[in-house]
Amino acid sequence: MKEVTKEQFKEIYFKLGGGAATGWDLEYWNEFFEDEKIPGMKYLLEEPETSKHARMMIVTDYDMNEYRLFFLTEESEESLFDFPDKSCDRPDHRQATRASDGRSLGEGISEMEKKELPCCGLADARHVIELPHVYQFDFDLFQCGQCARYWVYAWRGVGGWEETTTGDAEKMQALGNNELRVFMKEWARTSFD
Description:
Layout: E1 2-4, H1 6-16, H2 26-34, E2 42-45, E3 55-61, E4 66-72, H3 74-78, E5 96-98, E6 104-106, E7 113-117, E8 121-134, E9 137-144, E10 150-156, E11 158-164, H4 166-174, H5 177-192
Helix pairs in contact: 4-5
């Protein structure tokens, strides 16, 4: 990666980012980059290696005071969060069973784990899917093992729970990467307003 000016970074962001269809639009730029929220941040860029490297990614690294913009292929983006050891027992997050009341219980990408949930207190919860990072938040979808409600855990230095509907949880599991990023931007806007 090479260090570039903010203007060069911005030029690539708008030229190759994909705009509103991918969530890398003017609104996102203005929210996080236009006004210097953190003085002294460096802008690093790795331009696409090939025409297949069309998936733009941005990492904000506060420890290094850097914004890093780079591009992945569709395949490399799909496998970004795969476990390195394919032999582990990681069920496909789209498999599902049904609770006694008919609501979907996602198999998740991990075993049940104890979580302090707003619905049932300390309860078993299943991590259903890691969601795209939007607005500098890390989102994960969980489902309560007791009442089958879906919760999104939003983390940005400090974490918190936000309930989501079964319909939205199913969309989060079914949408592809770009569509999911756009959906999560809208979901976050309406959930946190």
